[in-house]
């Protein structure tokens, strides 16, 4: 692509200070250095971890920065030595790296990776300990090694998972954090068996993914615990069989659950990040074998506590990061499972907005009804606004609307907005001559090089005519 090796100026949502609205800026994104990948982010979702850092409670939070870590996009260019991805590949950025070479990766005991953590933890890239983002010459910190609230971002190659190009990026972007965290907490960390009784504390995205994972594992009962009764109906669709609201009981919630389950649950999952709830989640587990998994992230400085006797008598306390999944190896597998309809993803998406509406998206995240809000990062003007030449009546206004799908499909192939200008005349020629009858329901575009449409599929083609 023409942008390879060049600084790209694009839109990004910049967090200048904790708890202050994010600002949409024109930022400069440097080319990738050795071992780095520059990605065009097409879709990104909001996660409570972004809100946690934005709040100022994250001890590793650095400002000004570009937040965001749950996304999907297309590789724009790669740096020297990068071999596993190339320009045009569809990818999911992964905050949990996988180098396959460090002590952690080779241990076979964890999905943690130590190769780039020393750099990503302080908001820079490993090669030169500098940022690839700037605004008018002033550097911006990276976030979690991903920074996906930007139309372009630069990652270490060990943090990039190549996925099936047929997977819809506006859906599978969720497989960069919350959904795998919940599923993996059940499948990898706890290893829930068929017939188990499970309690899930907190019925947000991660909690519902835990419920889905428990149902898939064959749990006999999945008890949802939340202080919002409205969440129960939705939770049923993800596998929750019973609902308990702690506010409706005089006894501590752990005792309520022990009484409900003849001695305690087999597995519990804390998906909130509240240390008091973490204790309750442990103490509701069955004596002798109950296991509790901490999934939620508590605020800086918080400590967990319980009576040692709880552990002496056989209960186990565990934690999990990214659900124990190895990112580059297993995120593509999760995408395959989604494509085969073996796991839910679409059902977690409750809102869809644009990058310009990111502050509204954060408001929605805190209101309780929002599971995941997906932001579209491509700035897609109308065809008439993009076209450099005047055109006349038959093609004007609403008549152009069906052809917007061609533009969208082209961009999904990794073509930049700049290159799109050179394609529009061809699109208009197709339409004007009556050769292209594309509708918003059927558009399949193949690209050769930067500016050649080699194939388009119309409704007639789809029907074999």
UniProtKB/TrEMBL annotation:
UniProt-annotated location(s): Cytoplasm
Gene Ontology terms: cellular component: cytosol
Stored Pfam families: ADH_N, ADH_zinc_N
EC identifiers of the protein: 1.1.1.284
The reaction(s) this protein catalyses: a primary alcohol + NAD(+) = an aldehyde + NADH + H(+); S-(hydroxymethyl)glutathione + NADP(+) = S-formylglutathione + NADPH + H(+); a secondary alcohol + NAD(+) = a ketone + NADH + H(+); S-(hydroxymethyl)glutathione + NAD(+) = S-formylglutathione + NADH + H(+)
Entries under InterPro entries matching the protein: ADH-like_C, ADH-like_N, ADH_3, ADH_Zn_CS, GroES-like_sf, NAD(P)-bd_dom_sf
Domain Alcohol dehydrogenase-like C-terminal: 206-333
Cofactor: Zn(2+)
Biological processes annotated in GO: formaldehyde catabolic process
Alcohol dehydrogenase-like N-terminal domain sequence ranges: 34-162
Top EC class for this record: oxidoreductase
Keywords for this protein: Cytoplasm, Metal-binding, NAD, Oxidoreductase, Zinc
GO molecular function, one term: S-(hydroxymethyl)glutathione dehydrogenase [NAD(P)+] activity
Family of this protein: Belongs to the zinc-containing alcohol dehydrogenase family. Class-III subfamily.
Subunit structure: Homodimer.
Record-given protein name: S-(hydroxymethyl)glutathione dehydrogenase
Lineage: Eukaryota, Viridiplantae, Streptophyta, Embryophyta, Tracheophyta
